[in-house]
């Protein structure tokens, strides 16, 4: 079931990426290279840097393509009023950060991107993310500005009215951006600290 | 779609420790039964038993968090949860997270019932108790009381510990 939904998700990511004109190829690893532990990562062979986008960091500076230069980046999309999946994922990422530090592996920069422009500001999202780990950053922007980043990555988000307010349906997969500014991998949930640490270590080494 | 239909889906998480625990409990109770000459088939104790309750520790800036637990029905009747409350939070509701093609959807859970002999797992990425509007005076390190009201008029309470992660 998990692998089936991963496959489906991968298909959607690919379909959207291709529709957006991004040349994306799946790297099919042969069985000899497949790690023994279950993997949440779908590696993407993509050398084309992401299309230009412009969002705002919590400190008021601009978050744009050049922030990916010379380092690995983990992007996670969510919203601060999310009680279940977003805190679960950020707590897991805080665990990954500790795990990689213990292995002497550099943790990629983590950027939490709010997909709730109605309730979150870049500053409030940043305080929220830093509550899980001081090094995490957050960014925000208008729906239009967000789509310039989310569409090519295959990340979906949608505000939905529910009794007593609204919620935001969103893709829970994390995306990993390489130092070349191109999509390197999609990390599908449910995320586990050990598995995610292994995947990230394998991707960046 | 009725809510109970949602429980027929495969678990979101690979491990099903609840089932393993239940099997262990059954084995232990069989062994205890073998050492004991009791012929009673009555199940003593409360019909609804809540265990492993915890609330995710979130930064003070977070307006929302969630409680997770296991709830077993040891009685003979189907039980329906009609309301949940907590002295520590002003807004307490049952929510269900579902994943469709990698997209998370969270909706209020209605008509949450528990069959006789059944166990409901409230877990990350699934059914959970959404907690909002933290009351003044709430001490983050103290266990959070949760009160479940049932359709038969009974209320069952439990204390949830504050944790950053699931203990499992």
Description:
The complex is a heterodimer of chains A (205) and B (168). With 205 residues, chain A is an alpha+beta fold. In chain A, 33% of the residues lie in helices and 25% in strands. Chain A is built from five helices and eleven strands; from the N terminus they run H-E-E-E-E-E-H-E-H-E-H-E-E-E-E-H. In chain A, strand 3 and strand 4 form a beta hairpin. Chain A is globular, with a radius of gyration of 16 Å. The model of chain A is unreliable at 1-37 (pLDDT under 50). By secondary structure, chain B is mostly beta strands. Chain B contains two helices and ten strands, in the order H-H-E-E-E-E-E-E-E-E-E-E. In chain B, strands 1, 2, 3, 4, 5, 6, 7, 8, 9 and 10 form a ten-stranded mixed sheet that branches. The radius of gyration of chain B is 17 Å and the shape is globular. Classes of the chains: A alpha+beta (205), B mainly beta (168). The interface between A and B is large, with 40 and 33 residues.
Q: What share of residues of chain B is helical?
A: 10-25%
Largest interface (C-beta under 8 Å)? A-B, 40 and 33 residues
Q: Count of helical segments of chain B?
A: 2
Mean pLDDT figure of chain B: 78
Q: Approximately how much beta-strand content do the residues of chain A carry? A: 25-35%
Along the chain, the helix and strand elements of chain A come as: HEEEEEHEHEHEEEEH
- Count of strand segments of chain A: 11
- Roughly what is the average pLDDT of chain A, rounded to an integer? 84
Placed side by side, the strands forming the largest sheet of chain A appear as: 1-2-11-10-5-6-7-3-4
Instruction: Name the overall outline of chain B.
Output: globular
- Low-pLDDT windows of residues of chain A: 1-37
- What is the terminal-to-terminal distance of chain A? 30 Å
Characteristic terms for this protein:
heterodimer; A: alpha+beta; about 35% helix; disordered N terminus; B: about 170 residues; ten-stranded mixed β-sheet
């Amino acid at each position: 079931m998990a692998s089936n939904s991963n496959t489906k998700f991968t298909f959607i990511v690919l379909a959207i990426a291709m529709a957006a004109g991004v040349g994306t190829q799946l790297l099919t690893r042969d069985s000899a290279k497949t790690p023994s532990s279950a993997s949440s990562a779908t590696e993407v062979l993509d050398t084309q840097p992401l299309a230009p986008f412009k969002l705002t960091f919590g400190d008021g500076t601009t978050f744009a393509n050049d922030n990916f230069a010379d380092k690995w980046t983990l992007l996670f999309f969510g919203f601060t009023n999310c009680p279940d999946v977003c805190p679960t994922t950020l707590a897991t990422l805080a665990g990954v950060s500790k795990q990689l530090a213990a292995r002497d592996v550099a943790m990629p920069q983590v950027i939490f991107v709010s997909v709730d422009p109605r309730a979150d500001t870049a500053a409030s999202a940043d305080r929220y993310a830093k509550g899980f780990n001081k090094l995490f950053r957050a960014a925000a922007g208008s729906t239009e500005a967000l789509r310039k980043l989310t569409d090519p990555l295959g990340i979906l988000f949608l505000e939905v009215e529910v009794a007593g307010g609204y919620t935001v349906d969103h893709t829970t997969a994390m995306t990993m951006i390489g130092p070349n500014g191109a999509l390197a991998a999609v990390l599908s949930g449910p995320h586990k600290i050990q598995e995610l640490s292994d995947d990230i270590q394998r991707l960046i080494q | 779609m009725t809510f109970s239909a949602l429980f027929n889906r495969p678990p979101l998480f690979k491990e099903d420790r609840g089932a393993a625990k239940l099997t262990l409990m059954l084995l232990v109770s069989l062994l205890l039964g073998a050492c004991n000459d009791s012929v009673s088939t009555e199940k003593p104790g409360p019909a609804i038993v809540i265990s492993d309750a915890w609330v995710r520790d979130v930064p003070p800036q977070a307006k929302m968090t969630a409680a997770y637990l296991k709830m077993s029905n040891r009685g003979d009747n189907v039980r329906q949860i009609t309301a949940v409350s907590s002295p520590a939070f002003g807004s307490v509701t049952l929510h269900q997270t579902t994943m469709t093609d990698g997209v998370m959807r969270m909706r209020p859970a209605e008509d949450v019932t528990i069959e006789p002999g059944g166990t409901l797992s409230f877990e990350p990425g699934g059914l959970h108790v959404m907690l909002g509007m933290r009351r003044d005076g709430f001490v983050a390190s103290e266990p959070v009381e949760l009160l479940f009201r049932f359709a038969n008029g009974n209320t069952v309470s439990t204390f949830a510990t504050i944790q950053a992660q699931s203990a499992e």
